[in-house]
Amino acid sequence: MRIDIITIFPEYFSPLELSLIGKARASGLLDIRLHDLRSWTHDRHNTVDDTPYGGGPGMVMKPEPWGEALDAVTGGGEEGATPRLIVPAPSGLPFTQQRADRLAAEPWLVFACGRYEGIDSRVAEDAAGRMPVEHLSIGDYVLAGGESATLVMVETVSRLLPGVLGNAESAVQDSFATGAMAHLLEGPVYTKPPVWRDREVPPVLLSGNHGAVDRWRRDQALRATARNRPELLDRFTDDDLDRRDQEV
Ligand SMILES: Oc1ccccc1-c1ccno1
Question: pTM score, two decimals?
Answer without folding.
Answer: 0.91
